[in-house]
Write a structure and sequence with these properties.
- By secondary structure, this protein is mainly alpha-helical.
- Helices cover 80% and strands 0% of the residues.
- The chain contains 11 helices and no strands.
- Helix 1 packs across helix 11 and helix 2 packs across helix 11.
Amino acid sequence: MEQKTKIHERIFLALVMLFFYLPILYVVLFSFNSSKSLSTFTGFSLQWYEKMFANRTIMESIGYTVSCAVIATVVSTIVGTVTAIGMSKSRKVLREAINQVNNLPMLNPDIVTAIGFMLFFTSLRIKTGFTTMVLAHIAFCIPYVILSVMPKLRTLDPNLAEAALDLGCTPLQALWKVIIPQIRPGIISGALVAFSMSFDDFVISLFTTGPGVSNISIYVYASVKRINPTINALSALIVYVITAVLIIVNVVPMIKERKKNKNGN
């Protein structure tokens, strides 16, 4: 009976994995298709990748997406980390109030947040474009960084910073040399979440961008109604980049850990 249960669990797990990863494999496979068909694989070809890199609009959308994601990640990681550290040293009432406000952007539907940003920029008569899109991305990425950093701060000894100050560190040195190294995993995970949220965003980007400025999501949405195999190549390229980043993030710490263990032995 127990063995049958295990078999059923494995089958269920296999079906779930297929459900999640089969569409991705399908897109990657047909990005190498020699014809425009999205249902029949007629032969191996790199023509759609060549056309993608030759398409100026696609290259511009990639540039806008990456630039926006990098800027939003750097700024939101710095602001979110500093805010989380400040919250950890604040009174409980203030900390809980900030936590509740911090949760609002994550609980709100994207469409509500997007309309809010659009009305905010319109009321201030700010011309929408790349800058407004970046500002919106920074705003909705900060809560995710705070949420990732706070659990690491709760595990720290509350007297750690004071001990560093007593030993001669300035407040900035105590922050940089003592607190930051201890919460680095939380900062890295927050930065990765911020980057993925910004890179993948569609609704908020659509409402806060201006004419001539579109990221990958907006470009794909505008092209999805017609057969365009370069979209498969673009999607596959994103899969390659994300896979490489995940491998680096997971493999590099393992290599460092092994080196530490060897040096320790």
